[in-house]
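During the no-cost extension, the postdoctoral fellow (Dr. R.K.) reprocessed legacy sequence entries with the updated structure-token encoder. One reprocessed record is reproduced below for audit purposes.
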Amino acid sequence: MASLREDGIDIGMRKGIGIGRQDEKIYIAKNMINKHMDINLISQLTDLSVDEIMRL
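Re-encoded structure tokens follow.
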């Protein structure tokens, strides 16, 4: 059985990975915007909502 400390580390690592993935999606979306790509296409390819993309 894992200790509480190990559980906390595991949860923190998963949260950090999720944040990193979201940051990467935003980075990619910004590059796509700079290339004048369609907002709906960006949304489909990055899984970000149109509203999220419009706020970038």
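The two ends are 44 Å apart (CA to CA). The chain has a mean pLDDT of 93. The remaining legacy entries will be reprocessed before the final report is submitted.
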